[in-house]
Amino acid sequence: MEKKEGRLKGHKDVTIMDLPGIYSLSPYTLEEVVARNYLITERPDAILNIVDGTNLERNLYLSTQIMELGIPVVVAVNMSDLLEKSGDKVYLDKLSAKLGCPVVAISALKGTGIEKAAEKAVELARSKTVNAPVHEFAATVEAAISSVEDKLGQDIDEEQKRFFAIKLLEKDDKIIENMKSVPDVSAEIKALEDEFDDDTESIITNERYTYISSIIGECCKKSRKKKLSVSDKIDRVVTNRFAALPIFAVIMFIVYYVSVTTVGTFATDWANDGLFGDGWHLFGIGTSGYNEAVDEYAVRNVFTEELSVVVDDAGKADIVGAEDLQGAIEDGDFGAFEEAYGSYADAFAEAGYDLDAVLPLDGEGEFADAPDPADYGVWVPGIPVLVERLLDAVNCADWLYSLIIDGIVGGVGAVLGFVPQMLVLFIFLAFLESCGYMARVAFVMDRIFRKFGLSGKSFIPMLIGSGCGVPGIMASRTIENDRDRKMTIMTTTFIPCGAKLPIIALIATSLFGGNGFVAVSAYFIGVAAIVISGIMLKKTKMFAGDPAPFVMELPAYHWPTVGNVLRSMWERGWSFIKKAGTIILLSSIVIWAGSHFGNVGGSFGFGLDMELSDSVLGYIGNGIKWIFAPLGFGDATAAIATIMGLVAKEEVVGVFGVLDFVSMTQLAAYSFLIFNLLCAPCFAAIGAIKREMNSAKWTWFAIGYQCIFAYAISLIVYQLGSLFTGNGNAIGTIAAVLVLAFLLYMLFRPYKESNTLKVKVKTKKANA
Amino acid sequence: MKTLRQTACGETVKVVKLTGEGPVRRRIMDMGITKGVEIYVRKVAPLGDPVEVTVRGYELSLRKADAEMIEVE
């Protein structure tokens, strides 16, 4: 839970604390407890209470509670621009008199009146005049409050007494943590409850609203025109019984299409291959010229008769990947050919079809005399290239060169490569949030998602997660409810992201004859993992602990300003770079060291071109491979591939190539696929999880859960699969059945939703 | 006793009593649904739950299970 701190412009000595948005000071939600503990124990010099002027009645309810804290209050009536437009009036002076505190009008959207409101608060804080609450409840309630006030100990300040007295009457169990001695007020409670035939919590809530109703008529006037507002008209269409779901689908498609497939892919490719790769053509100048040159080069030098003969022969012999190569040659597509060549050349060579012999390769295995993109148009070299040049110029040592280029630049690049795509997505999120549609998403989707302990808003993170888990996790920020948000963060990466597709594709081509069913099943497993995890987790102690009422305000639609959308986009993007960056940088260096230190000629040392099997990572892989034996892939390379998957999921196929897959059974490969789809995501996503959880404990819990869940599902699939194909073994089968039984128990056991907030919030005893 | 759950779309009702206990009930009250207040049922979500109501001049959504706690006339 976050409180944001900042300084007031022009007043170096003034600190502003932004508390979470709340509706009340009840003890039931984390936001409310955090906010009220801050107000009670830190005792800020003044409170700037921002209320929605278009919805004054409900907003003043919180104001009446804040007035009782014994802290000077300034009420700022927000949305004054909308009030003007609709013709509704709020009489500030009347409101000020009725509330007993200064009232100013502001518009956060248009940026008007904010400085004046802040000045007023500073002025009030300096004068240290506490405005005593002027609102009054029914006489009997007031009598009970003053009777409790008299019983309070010396540790409670005079001006805070009303607040504490009311909380005690409301039987608020969290307030005791802020008190040294707790007087017995059961007599007062009983007297009140007998008189009103209701419980004290309701009596006091009723009294507050009764008071507000009594003053609201004098303080504001609704314009008389009763015709539907624009917002009502929009809402009639957008959440219409029949149109709502199609509209939702269209909006989601646009968000996905722009931020994941088109602009998003372009931005990520530019960042990864251009900015953090070899370089890029400025504004695309020269790209088409270069592409033509490459295709011409390929047709003339690469796609020769000799090559076609070898590939066609391999195709007749059903060598894995031959179809891909044939297709690329037919289309004259050099890029696709290069990619397929990278994946399948080893498998070809193993089967006796030597591609290298018929390709124009130079001494280093590169295509000889291929066109250089830098010769075309305006070429901007990538950051690694520039850093390389710099290091070459200063004659940097080889190991340091490798650390900087492969470890640090590569690692930081991996983080920053996602940022452009994230910014695109964040613009959408900011827009959907501030225009009011996001609340409707929750309204429309709630029925489906709440069954799995998720919010209707969880749909967006999961949709985005199918492109990349990092912005997917970041998108969970829009979910206010703490429990729903944590659950969404934990399960979003189960959906196969773009980087997992190469794993799926390679397994499908090398063992299942390119069957499309493998890819479909991967998405199905992802969705099933989310549903199963949601149902299981919401019944565990970690989640069942906190109540999650879904009683939500649906704000009026309005057009957001460009400035606000951009600010929100930048805040989110920057917070990812700052907080997730460290963990990713650190892990990249650790992985770099793990793969470059190891056995050099019999002793421990550093090697630039170290074989993975000789490196520390290799030894670790070898040491832990037994863990994966029950899943069907107890092989050192498979273990290393899984570890390398933490850097980026596509690394899995970099380490574990076609040859390794071909030697596996279909079942073992499928189990390997399931494990790599569901286990801990890449470091960038782990960084995002840490950023969003904002807690080391929860980050570890999320990662641990994902790994254990992945292991359990792979075990069940592999062992029971072996049993049905006649290769089962007794111990494995028993283990799988036990795990399955446990999963089913966790899924179907009964549970009861809790009624109290169990999360411990740090409190200081008042005035201690 | 009729509850808000049974109230049809387009109807305006008056709250008589809130049953149940704990955070959901408190939240409902905090949002302004208290004894004697008028509630207008605006619409039901496309999948049949939750419902959207107008109370104290603003729009609020709540689940049918929670609407059952609100006795109306």
Provide the fold topology.
The complex is a heterodimer of chains A (768) and B (73).
Chain A: E1 4-8, E2 11-18, H1 30-42, E3 47-52, H2 56-66, E4 73-78, H3 80-86, E5 89-90, H4 92-99, E6 103-105, H5 114-127, H6 139-151, H7 161-169, H8 186-196, H9 200-219, E7 220-221, H10 230-238, H11 244-261, H12 263-275, E8 279-281, H13 287-302, H14 305-316, H15 322-331, H16 334-350, E9 379-381, H17 383-393, H18 398-416, H19 419-435, H20 437-449, H21 459-465, H22 469-475, H23 482-492, H24 501-511, H25 517-538, H26 541-544, E10 551-553, H27 562-596, E11 597-600, E12 603-606, H28 616-628, H29 636-644, H30 651-655, H31 658-662, H32 666-678, H33 683-693, H34 696-724, H35 730-748
Parallel strand pairs in A: 3-4, 4-6
Antiparallel strand pairs in A: 1-2, 5-7, 8-9, 11-12
Chain B: E1 12-18, H1 22-30, E2 38-44, E3 51-55, E4 58-62, H2 64-67, E5 70-72
Antiparallel strand pairs in B: 1-2, 1-5, 2-3, 3-4
What can be said about this structure in brief?
The complex is a heterodimer of chains A (768) and B (73). Chain A is mainly alpha-helical and 768 residues long. Chain A contains 35 helices and 12 strands.
